[in-house]
Amino acid sequence: QVRLVESGGGLVQPGGSLRLSCAASESILSINTLGWYRQVQGKLRELVATMGSGGSTNYADSVKGRFTISRDNAKNMVYLQMNSLKPEDTAVYYCNAYINYYFQYWGQGTQVTVSS
Length: 116
Fold this sequence. Notes:
It is a single chain. By secondary structure, the protein is mostly beta strands. It is built from no helices and 11 strands. Strands 2, 4, 5, 6, 9, 10 and 11 form a 7-stranded mixed beta sheet that branches. The protein is globular.
């Protein structure tokens, strides 16, 4: 089991920035893919960004150029830097660790609200 704890959410004005952090309970070198997902009430959870063990990244079209996923292997941390935030970015953001199809783990989620 991998425990994930997110932090960094909050209320931000449009155009502002926020950095989300996710602390993993074990070495992230053992995790195939780390990612960030988000969910709005009444909507399906959607992919925001992922990073494979080899360093490859994948972003949702809606956040390309604005969000950046990164990791610090020494600290077992994964981050999501969010810039130029828009009201439509408002959602609960979840950290995800994908080991394989049978073993996937999620954090508790952190609320991000973009509003003036």
